[in-house]
Amino acid sequence: MGMFSMRKPRGFHHEYIYVDERKEKLEKIKENAKRELGMLPPKAFNPEDIRGKFVEGTTHLKRKKARGNSSWSYGKLLIAILILLYVMHYLVTGEWTF
Fold this sequence. Notes:
- With 98 residues, the protein is an all-alpha fold.
- The chain has four helices and no strands.
């Protein structure tokens, strides 16, 4: 099997070295304040600015995203196994009672 499996290439991850995040945040705050005071024209609508804002605003969606997509909990699996065992008992013995 190892002969036919193709490994995926490592993803590209670039971290900036010479970036001052504090300075960029301060510039953004200044720009927003000037826009509110009317010193700068209103910013044009950009659909990219909306991406991810709905998930950030709600705590239950954050928890769901962090938890993952596990729709089958242990309780549901246990009930499903018990039902399957009961059906198997019927198929083997031919009776619905124990």
